[in-house]
Structure to design on (235 residues):
Protein backbone atom coordinates (compact mmCIF):
# COMPACT_ATOMS: atom_id res chain seq x y z
CA UNK A 1 0.00 0.00 0.00
CA UNK A 2 1.08 3.55 -0.53
CA UNK A 3 0.66 6.80 1.33
CA UNK A 4 1.51 10.41 0.72
CA UNK A 5 1.83 13.64 2.64
CA UNK A 6 0.55 17.06 1.75
CA UNK A 7 3.18 18.79 -0.33
CA UNK A 8 5.16 18.17 -3.49
CA UNK A 9 5.17 14.99 -5.51
CA UNK A 10 8.21 12.84 -6.16
CA UNK A 11 9.21 15.00 -9.14
CA UNK A 12 8.90 18.24 -7.18
CA UNK A 13 5.56 19.16 -8.74
CA UNK A 14 2.42 19.75 -6.71
CA UNK A 15 0.39 16.57 -6.26
CA UNK A 16 -2.71 16.23 -8.42
CA UNK A 17 -6.19 17.02 -7.13
CA UNK A 18 -7.08 13.42 -6.30
CA UNK A 19 -3.90 12.94 -4.31
CA UNK A 20 -4.57 16.21 -2.47
CA UNK A 21 -8.04 14.88 -1.64
CA UNK A 22 -6.49 11.68 -0.27
CA UNK A 23 -4.00 13.69 1.80
CA UNK A 24 -6.79 15.95 3.07
CA UNK A 25 -8.79 12.96 4.22
CA UNK A 26 -5.73 11.54 5.96
CA UNK A 27 -5.22 14.83 7.81
CA UNK A 28 -8.87 14.94 8.83
CA UNK A 29 -8.69 11.38 10.15
CA UNK A 30 -5.54 12.26 12.08
CA UNK A 31 -6.69 15.54 13.60
CA UNK A 32 -10.50 15.55 13.80
CA UNK A 33 -11.86 13.91 16.95
CA UNK A 34 -15.24 13.16 15.35
CA UNK A 35 -13.64 11.54 12.30
CA UNK A 36 -11.35 9.43 14.46
CA UNK A 37 -14.35 7.79 16.13
CA UNK A 38 -16.22 6.86 12.93
CA UNK A 39 -16.16 3.34 11.50
CA UNK A 40 -17.54 1.80 8.28
CA UNK A 41 -20.94 1.02 9.79
CA UNK A 42 -21.42 4.49 11.29
CA UNK A 43 -20.69 6.06 7.89
CA UNK A 44 -23.47 4.19 6.08
CA UNK A 45 -26.23 6.78 6.70
CA UNK A 46 -24.00 9.51 5.29
CA UNK A 47 -23.15 7.37 2.26
CA UNK A 48 -26.85 6.82 1.55
CA UNK A 49 -27.66 10.50 2.02
CA UNK A 50 -24.86 11.68 -0.27
CA UNK A 51 -25.87 9.14 -2.92
CA UNK A 52 -29.45 10.40 -2.92
CA UNK A 53 -28.28 14.01 -3.09
CA UNK A 54 -26.24 13.15 -6.18
CA UNK A 55 -29.29 11.48 -7.76
CA UNK A 56 -31.30 14.65 -7.09
CA UNK A 57 -28.61 16.78 -8.70
CA UNK A 58 -28.47 14.53 -11.79
CA UNK A 59 -32.23 14.47 -12.16
CA UNK A 60 -32.30 18.26 -11.80
CA UNK A 61 -29.69 18.52 -14.60
CA UNK A 62 -27.71 20.98 -12.47
CA UNK A 63 -24.02 20.66 -13.42
CA UNK A 64 -22.84 22.80 -10.50
CA UNK A 65 -24.72 20.63 -8.03
CA UNK A 66 -23.58 17.44 -9.78
CA UNK A 67 -19.96 18.53 -9.43
CA UNK A 68 -20.40 19.28 -5.73
CA UNK A 69 -22.32 16.10 -4.95
CA UNK A 70 -19.81 13.96 -6.81
CA UNK A 71 -17.18 15.45 -4.55
CA UNK A 72 -19.22 14.65 -1.46
CA UNK A 73 -19.64 11.06 -2.64
CA UNK A 74 -15.91 10.83 -3.39
CA UNK A 75 -15.27 11.98 0.16
CA UNK A 76 -17.24 8.98 1.41
CA UNK A 77 -15.08 6.66 -0.70
CA UNK A 78 -11.92 8.26 0.63
CA UNK A 79 -13.24 8.07 4.19
CA UNK A 80 -13.99 4.34 3.98
CA UNK A 81 -10.60 3.66 2.39
CA UNK A 82 -8.79 5.64 5.06
CA UNK A 83 -10.59 3.73 7.80
CA UNK A 84 -9.63 0.45 6.14
CA UNK A 85 -5.99 1.50 5.75
CA UNK A 86 -5.66 1.68 9.54
CA UNK A 87 -7.32 -1.65 10.28
CA UNK A 88 -4.07 -3.40 11.29
CA UNK A 89 -2.83 -0.64 13.58
CA UNK A 90 -6.30 -0.42 15.14
CA UNK A 91 -6.24 -4.17 15.76
CA UNK A 92 -9.59 -4.61 13.99
CA UNK A 93 -8.56 -6.60 10.93
CA UNK A 94 -5.63 -8.14 9.13
CA UNK A 95 -7.13 -7.21 5.74
CA UNK A 96 -6.13 -3.57 5.52
CA UNK A 97 -6.20 -1.66 2.24
CA UNK A 98 -6.02 1.96 1.15
CA UNK A 99 -7.39 4.12 -1.66
CA UNK A 100 -4.62 3.04 -4.04
CA UNK A 101 -5.66 -0.58 -3.56
CA UNK A 102 -9.28 0.39 -4.19
CA UNK A 103 -8.31 2.18 -7.40
CA UNK A 104 -6.13 -0.70 -8.58
CA UNK A 105 -8.91 -3.21 -7.96
CA UNK A 106 -11.29 -1.01 -9.93
CA UNK A 107 -8.91 -0.69 -12.88
CA UNK A 108 -8.29 -4.44 -13.01
CA UNK A 109 -12.03 -5.15 -12.97
CA UNK A 110 -12.87 -2.61 -15.67
CA UNK A 111 -10.11 -3.91 -17.95
CA UNK A 112 -11.40 -7.49 -17.52
CA UNK A 113 -14.98 -6.45 -18.22
CA UNK A 114 -14.13 -4.45 -21.35
CA UNK A 115 -12.27 -7.00 -23.51
CA UNK A 116 -13.56 -5.16 -26.59
CA UNK A 117 -11.55 -2.13 -25.43
CA UNK A 118 -8.45 -3.68 -23.87
CA UNK A 119 -8.26 -7.12 -25.51
CA UNK A 120 -9.09 -8.71 -28.85
CA UNK A 121 -12.87 -8.92 -28.58
CA UNK A 122 -15.16 -6.96 -30.90
CA UNK A 123 -18.43 -5.36 -29.86
CA UNK A 124 -20.37 -3.30 -32.38
CA UNK A 125 -23.62 -3.13 -30.41
CA UNK A 126 -24.57 -2.36 -26.80
CA UNK A 127 -26.07 -5.84 -26.60
CA UNK A 128 -22.71 -7.42 -27.41
CA UNK A 129 -21.01 -5.20 -24.83
CA UNK A 130 -23.47 -6.46 -22.23
CA UNK A 131 -22.78 -10.08 -23.23
CA UNK A 132 -19.05 -9.59 -22.76
CA UNK A 133 -19.60 -7.78 -19.46
CA UNK A 134 -21.82 -10.55 -18.09
CA UNK A 135 -19.43 -13.26 -19.25
CA UNK A 136 -16.52 -11.57 -17.52
CA UNK A 137 -18.58 -11.04 -14.38
CA UNK A 138 -19.66 -14.68 -14.33
CA UNK A 139 -16.02 -15.77 -14.59
CA UNK A 140 -15.16 -13.57 -11.60
CA UNK A 141 -18.03 -14.83 -9.46
CA UNK A 142 -17.60 -18.58 -9.88
CA UNK A 143 -18.10 -19.07 -6.13
CA UNK A 144 -21.68 -17.84 -6.35
CA UNK A 145 -24.33 -20.54 -6.24
CA UNK A 146 -27.41 -18.44 -7.01
CA UNK A 147 -28.36 -15.61 -9.34
CA UNK A 148 -29.47 -13.83 -6.17
CA UNK A 149 -25.97 -13.80 -4.69
CA UNK A 150 -24.65 -10.27 -4.62
CA UNK A 151 -28.07 -8.60 -4.89
CA UNK A 152 -28.20 -5.77 -2.35
CA UNK A 153 -31.37 -6.21 -0.29
CA UNK A 154 -30.97 -2.66 1.02
CA UNK A 155 -31.86 -1.17 -2.37
CA UNK A 156 -35.11 0.81 -2.57
CA UNK A 157 -37.97 -1.61 -3.13
CA UNK A 158 -38.74 -0.55 -6.70
CA UNK A 159 -35.09 -0.82 -7.75
CA UNK A 160 -34.88 -4.18 -5.99
CA UNK A 161 -38.05 -5.35 -7.76
CA UNK A 162 -36.62 -4.48 -11.16
CA UNK A 163 -33.38 -6.26 -10.29
CA UNK A 164 -35.12 -9.41 -9.05
CA UNK A 165 -37.44 -9.60 -12.05
CA UNK A 166 -34.35 -9.63 -14.25
CA UNK A 167 -32.80 -12.38 -12.13
CA UNK A 168 -36.05 -14.36 -12.29
CA UNK A 169 -35.97 -14.26 -16.09
CA UNK A 170 -32.54 -15.95 -16.03
CA UNK A 171 -33.99 -19.02 -14.33
CA UNK A 172 -37.37 -19.12 -16.07
CA UNK A 173 -39.38 -17.72 -13.16
CA UNK A 174 -41.93 -14.96 -13.33
CA UNK A 175 -43.89 -16.09 -16.36
CA UNK A 176 -47.07 -14.88 -14.70
CA UNK A 177 -45.58 -11.40 -14.51
CA UNK A 178 -44.85 -11.45 -18.24
CA UNK A 179 -48.39 -12.63 -18.92
CA UNK A 180 -49.82 -9.86 -16.75
CA UNK A 181 -47.76 -7.26 -18.61
CA UNK A 182 -48.92 -8.67 -21.95
CA UNK A 183 -52.57 -8.74 -20.88
CA UNK A 184 -52.42 -5.18 -19.58
CA UNK A 185 -50.94 -4.02 -22.86
CA UNK A 186 -53.63 -5.87 -24.82
CA UNK A 187 -56.44 -3.98 -23.07
CA UNK A 188 -54.61 -0.67 -23.09
CA UNK A 189 -54.06 -0.65 -19.34
CA UNK A 190 -50.26 -0.65 -19.45
CA UNK A 191 -48.39 2.67 -19.34
CA UNK A 192 -46.71 3.67 -22.58
CA UNK A 193 -44.09 6.04 -21.15
CA UNK A 194 -42.12 6.66 -17.96
CA UNK A 195 -44.40 9.61 -17.26
CA UNK A 196 -47.49 7.39 -17.44
CA UNK A 197 -45.70 4.79 -15.33
CA UNK A 198 -45.08 7.43 -12.69
CA UNK A 199 -48.76 8.33 -12.70
CA UNK A 200 -49.73 4.68 -12.30
CA UNK A 201 -47.28 4.10 -9.46
CA UNK A 202 -48.55 7.20 -7.67
CA UNK A 203 -52.12 5.98 -8.10
CA UNK A 204 -51.19 2.62 -6.61
CA UNK A 205 -49.54 4.26 -3.61
CA UNK A 206 -52.59 6.51 -3.16
CA UNK A 207 -54.77 3.39 -3.25
CA UNK A 208 -52.60 1.79 -0.58
CA UNK A 209 -52.90 4.86 1.62
CA UNK A 210 -56.67 5.02 1.17
CA UNK A 211 -56.95 1.42 2.33
CA UNK A 212 -54.49 1.71 5.20
CA UNK A 213 -51.96 -0.53 3.49
CA UNK A 214 -48.17 -0.12 3.57
CA UNK A 215 -47.07 0.07 -0.07
CA UNK A 216 -43.41 -0.48 0.77
CA UNK A 217 -44.14 -3.53 2.90
CA UNK A 218 -46.53 -4.95 0.32
CA UNK A 219 -43.90 -4.86 -2.42
CA UNK A 220 -41.10 -6.18 -0.22
CA UNK A 221 -43.25 -9.10 0.95
CA UNK A 222 -44.07 -9.92 -2.67
CA UNK A 223 -40.38 -9.76 -3.51
CA UNK A 224 -39.60 -12.26 -0.75
CA UNK A 225 -42.03 -14.65 -2.42
CA UNK A 226 -40.30 -14.04 -5.77
CA UNK A 227 -36.93 -14.83 -4.19
CA UNK A 228 -38.32 -18.11 -2.84
CA UNK A 229 -39.57 -18.99 -6.32
CA UNK A 230 -36.18 -18.19 -7.86
CA UNK A 231 -34.28 -20.35 -5.36
CA UNK A 232 -36.78 -23.17 -5.87
CA UNK A 233 -36.23 -23.03 -9.62
CA UNK A 234 -32.45 -23.10 -9.14
CA UNK A 235 -32.72 -26.13 -6.84
Amino acid sequence: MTGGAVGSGADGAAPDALRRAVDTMRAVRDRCVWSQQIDHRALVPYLIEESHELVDAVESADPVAIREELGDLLWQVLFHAEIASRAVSDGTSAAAFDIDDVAETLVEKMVRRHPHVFAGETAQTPERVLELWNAAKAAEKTQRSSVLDGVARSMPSLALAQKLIGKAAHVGVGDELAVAVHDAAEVGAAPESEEELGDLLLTLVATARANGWDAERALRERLRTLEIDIRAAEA
About this structure: The CA atoms of residues 165 and 177 lie 9 Å apart.
